[in-house]
Design a protein that fits this description.
17% strand, 771 residues, flat, transmembrane signaling receptor activity, signal, receptor, alpha/beta, 33 strands, TIR domain-containing protein, seven-stranded mixed beta sheet, 15-stranded parallel beta sheet
Length: 771
């Protein structure tokens, strides 16, 4: 009776059919089915895709024979405690998907003890909290496509599968804690991170689907509680950059899906302990190199690394158990580094790929690659991890270099000067016939190894060797002129032979000799690299090892030039050394003398340019008859650019004395103490000394200049602070021979004399200015 336009059925319609097994009323327009199943209880009831709204009236009490109830796609808005309780005690399958149900309450299903599937997908449920699911037997709960933001329900042993796909959850939260489910799907939510606490106490999970979220971080210990149970883990379509070791030791895991994330690489031991892993999906990431982390997966069969940024694959990066490797969409470089992978493909029946790598059709270069020179052999070389092509042209009777390595000229096509060469690896179809085309593998790489030994080459001066050349064998030819400039240009050489050539030894050979001496550790035949037969420019040097010759041997006429240069250099260094010694021993005396004779640039740069005064003169008023005319007036006459702070002129009347003193010290670059008996007995003088001492400690600058005046007490009788200064600093003594030179040198100077007025807080003010 499905697929009709039925809107109404008479009550008790099925009463005469006591043995009715299946009632299929799907895809009609039924509004209600009151009393339709009051007497007859079919085993299978299908009422999906109708217009039923009253869920309580659909079923009746004691319908114990009903096994499956299909109520999908009806506009039910709620489930009540009377909808199923006492009605479906033995029902196993209940489908309520694609309705308009807004609430899930475990009490509405509490009597459904035999239920194994409850489908509430694609409804309008927003949260499930504080629920303990006790109904059912190994029940599968499907909440896919709702609007659930929070799921906080106790899921005991009777719940085996939970599907929460396509909801609005931002965290796993307590969804899984202390559960024992076998399958959990949280795909296509908004989960941002995973941590250990969210999986604490979880057991029994075999399949965990977290694809299609926005996960960007996973704690290392997240899956610890299920490390011996999890078999399938899907983390695809997230924003994961690093696994952080979170999948280590998942000992039963067979499938790991990391497709379409932001992974760039793996840490060492990333897949350690994945002893059962057979399928690894890494496509659509940002992986640049495969590394060796996959190699230890001894049971891996399928490796999908398509659409990454991998440029090369090596055979020793892949486990021997691998059967399929998918590489499409990677910028694979068909060079010598990938050769081992191609050889492995060529020699095994087991390993297959999705696309044929390194075919002639893959080459998109606008310029055809150079071919191996005629008569030579070209092959890949691996030297200390560096892969390149070596060209072996030894013992083939060459009288000149092949065009590929000759200097460019009008008759040589530009492409022949390329430093890249293509080689072909025949494909062994008998062993690996998984592609229809039988073209060989094509390898193109730079040339870094050259062997031209045992030929008849007479010159290589115009050669065009690749700059990255590592091996160059020129031994056993008839080359006379050393290729010095070429050898110096090849900075990456680490293996060279030069013997068996009749090298010219003259003034022009000195550069060649120096190159040999500085690179002797990788010249394999350095002792056999010798001068050729004597000629008029190299008399007596025949058959001598070039590295043993001196410059005088090679060019005797240069002796006088060398001697003159050596003597000139020695004289310069002797004069410079003498000047340095004199400056070191007499630096202060020299500076003082120069300053006394008008050379003021030798003074140290003033670091207190913003201070108003150059020096504050601190003295006892009892000494003023001597200090003012004999010291202060003389300083102002001899050095008018020195700005002096004088208490009788610059202290502000009305201010506290100690404030005037502190201000004077702060505004002065130096404090000059006229140390006399009167000074030591004056309380204010000692205060001025202490203020200057504090300022010097604060600025970390030597600011105090002491001038001893007259007879003083013994140092032991002086204040301890004065004793310390006299012992630790150099002081001046009034009347010494060089007193004035030393004093004027010690005093800082300003570029201009003291102004008549000064700007204080925006106001032009005459002296005193200590405000």
């Amino acid at each position: 009776m499905s697929d009709n336009l039925l809107q109404f059925l008479p009550p008790n319609l099925f009463d005469p059919w006591k043995k009715l097994k299946k009632a299929v009323l799907s895809k009609n327009r039924l509004i209600h089915v009151n009393q339709l199943f009051a007497v007859t209880h079919p085993q299978f009831i299908y009422l999906d895709n109708n217009n039923l709204t009253d869920l309580d009236s659909v079923l009746h009490r004691n319908m114990s024979s009903v096994e499956t109830v299909q109520l999908s796609n009806n506009p039910f808005s709620k489930v009540t405690v009377n909808s199923f309780n006492g009605k479906l005690s033995k029902t196993r399958f209940l489908y309520l998907d694609h309705c308009q149900i807004r609430e899930f309450n475990v009490n509405h299903f509490v009597s459904l003890h035999s239920l194994s599937t409850l489908d509430l997908s694609y409804n309008l449920i927003e949260k499930i909290v504080n629920q303990q699911i006790t109904f059912g037997n190994n029940v599968e709960l499907d909440f896919t496509g709702n609007k659930i933001k929070e799921f906080n329900a106790e899921l005991p042993y009777n719940v085996k599968h939970v599907y929460l796909n396509k909801n609005l959850m931002t965290t796993v939260g307590r969804t899984l804690q202390f559960s024992q489910m076998a399958q959990v799907s949280l795909a296509d939510n908004r989960i941002q991170s995973l941590d250990y606490e969210e999986f604490r106490g979880v057991h029994g999970i075999v399949m965990l689907d977290l694809q299609g979220n926005v996960i960007n971080s996973i704690e290392r210990e997240t899956f610890t509680s299920i490390r011996k149970e999890l078999v399938y883990l899907d983390l695809s379509r997230n924003r994961i950059r690093r696994l952080n070791g979170c999948v280590q030791s998942l000992s039963l895991l067979t499938s790991l899906n990391l497709t379409d994330n932001h992974i760039e690489g793996f840490e060492r031991g990333e897949f350690r302990g994945l002893n059962e892993l057979t399928d690894l999906y890494l496509q659509g990431n940002r992986i640049k190199t495969l590394g060796y982390e996959v190699y230890g997966l001894n049971r891996l069969k399928y490796l999908v690394i398509s659409h990454n940024k991998i440029r090369t694959i090596k055979a020793d990066q892949l486990p021997l158990s691998l059967q399929y490797v998918y590489v499409e969409g990677n910028p694979l470089q068909c060079d010598c580094q990938i050769l081992s992978f191609l050889q492995h493909l060529n020699s095994t029946k087991n390993l297959k790929t999705d696309v044929p790598p390194c075919n002639p059709s893959n080459n998109t270069s606008p310029v055809p690659p150079a071919q191996c020179p005629d008569g030579c052999q070209c092959f890949c070389t691996n030297s200390a991890g560096d892969h390149y092509i070596s060209v072996d042209c030894s013992a083939i009777g060459l009288t000149q270099l092949p065009p590929l390595f000759a200097a460019a000229n009008a008759s040589t096509p530009a492409e022949h000067n390329s430093t890249s060469v293509v080689i072909f690896l025949p494909r062994n179809l008998a062993e690996n016939a998984f592609f229809s085309e039988n073209a060989p593998f094509v390898i193109q790489d730079v040339v870094k190894g050259l062997d031209f030994s045992y030929n008849n080459l007479q010159s290589v001066e115009d050669a065009r060797f690749p700059k990255g050349t590592k091996h160059l064998f020129l031994g056993q030819n008839i080359i006379r002129q050393p290729p010095t400039s070429i050898l110096y240009a090849l900075e990456e050489l680490n293996s060279v032979t030069l013997s068996g050539n009749p090298w010219v030894c003259d003034c022009g050979t000195s550069g060649f000799k120096r190159w040999i001496l500085s690179h002797s550790e990788f010249i394999l035949d350095v002792n056999e690299t010798r001068c050729g037969p004597d000629d008029q420019d190299s008399s007596g040097l025949a058959n001598r090892a070039i590295w043993t010759l001196s410059d005088i041997d090679l060019c005797p006429t240069d002796v006088e030039v060398y001697v003159s240069i050596i003597l000139g250099v020695l004289s310069f260094f002797l004069v410079a050394a003498a000047a340095m010694i004199a400056w070191t021993r007499y630096e202060i005396n020299i500076k003082v003398w120069l300053y006394a004779h008008g050379v003021t640039w030798v003074k140290e740069r003033d670091i207190d340019r913003d201070k108003l005064f150059d020096a504050f003169i601190s003295f006892s008023y009892k000494d003023q008859n001597l200090v003012i005319p004999e010291l202060i007036n003389v300083i102002q006459k001899k050095a008018p650019s020195v700005r002096l702070c004088l208490h009788y002129r610059d202290f502000l009347p009305g201010n506290l004395i100690e404030e005037n003193i502190i201000k004077a010290v702060e505004l002065s670059k130096r404090t000059v103490l006229i140390l006399s008996r009167n000074f030591l007995e004056s309380e204010w003088c000692m205060f001025e000394f202490k203020a200057a001492h504090v300022q010097a400690l604060k600025d970390r600058v030597h600011r105090i200049i002491i001038i001893r005046l007259g007879d003083l007490p013994k140092e032991s009788e002086m204040p301890k602070e004065i004793q310390m200064y006299l012992k630790s600093t150099t002081y001046l003594t009034w009347g010494d021979k060089y007193f004035w030179n030393n004093l004027l040198y010690c005093l800082p100077t300003s570029s201009s004399p003291l102004p008549k007025t000064v700007d204080v807080n925006g106001v032009k003010q005459k002296y005193p200015v200590l405000v």
